[in-house]
Structure formats: structure tokens, C-alpha cells
Structure to design on (139 residues):
């Protein structure tokens, strides 16, 4: 069974769909559980609620399912919007990645893939005078 983190988003759901088409069974770990998207409607997909920063929850998923591979698509935002917190939020993101690698008795399982469906840091704010022109001002 393939564990897919972030498997209910657009990219995750289509990844799960492709895995199902290849004959793989899938369990999706999602921070907030939701209904299966239309692309997975009617499919037998196990959905587990877990945050990747919660090691115990991921270990429990590994005990409930025979995980043979992991596709990690859950978004992590290691850059904090709060000044001075970048090191701690980066530590949390890295801990989440390590937690995923430990989600099975075979840590990591024979097949592990990591992808990111979303940017991992916010777009920089334009500096004064260098942003796009304001409407009606010409500057």
C-alpha cells in the first residue's frame, strides 16, 4: 500500500488516481480530512487524518496499513512570516519529513518519493519604488 501525504489536493488526487490505475492500493494522510475529490469518487482509498509534524499519528498509520512506498506531497512552509522564527519553522518542516520516513517498519520503505505541489516560501514583497505601477498614477 502506498502512503500519499497531501493526497486530496489536485496533484495528490491525480497521483493517487495514477497509482490506482497501476493496481496499487493507497492510503492518504491529510491534515484535515475531506471528501474524496471527483477524480477518486467511488474508489477504495483509505483516508487518515494526520499532520506530518505528528510523529505518533504517522507511526499509527504505519501500524494500521502495510506501507510499501511513500509519496510525500504535503506542503510544508519552512519560511515563517514572523520575523526571527525561520529556524524553528524550518526545524518543524524537516522534522515532518523525517517523521514520514519513519511511518513504516521498514524505515524508509523501499520506494519513497518527495515532491512539492506548492511554493515553499512566500513571494518576496517588492521594495518601494520597484513594484508594479499603481493604477492611475503612471508610477
Amino acid at each position: 500500500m502506498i502512503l500519499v501525504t497531501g493526497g486530496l489536493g489536485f496533484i495528490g488526487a491525480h497521483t493517487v488516481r495514477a497509482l490506482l490505475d497501476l493496481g496499487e492500493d493507497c492510503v492518504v494522510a491529510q491534515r484535515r480530512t475531506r471528501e474524496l475529490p471527483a477524480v477518486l469518487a467511488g474508489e477504495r482509498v483509505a483516508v487518515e487524518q494526520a499532520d506530518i509534524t505528528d510523529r505518533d499519528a504517522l507511526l499509527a498509520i504505519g501500524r494500521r496499513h502495510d506501507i510499501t512506498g511513500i509519496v510525500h506531497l504535503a506542503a510544508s512552509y519552512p519560511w515563517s512570516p514572523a520575523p526571527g522564527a525561520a529556524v524553528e519553522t524550518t526545524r518543524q518542516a524537516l522534522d515532518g519529513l523525517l517523521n514520514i520516513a519513519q511511518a513504516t517498519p521498514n524505515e524508509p520503505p523501499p520506494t519513497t518519493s518527495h515532491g512539492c505541489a506548492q511554493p515553499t516560501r512566500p513571494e518576496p514583497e517588492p521594495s518601494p519604488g520597484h513594484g508594479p505601477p499603481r493604477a492611475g498614477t503612471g508610477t
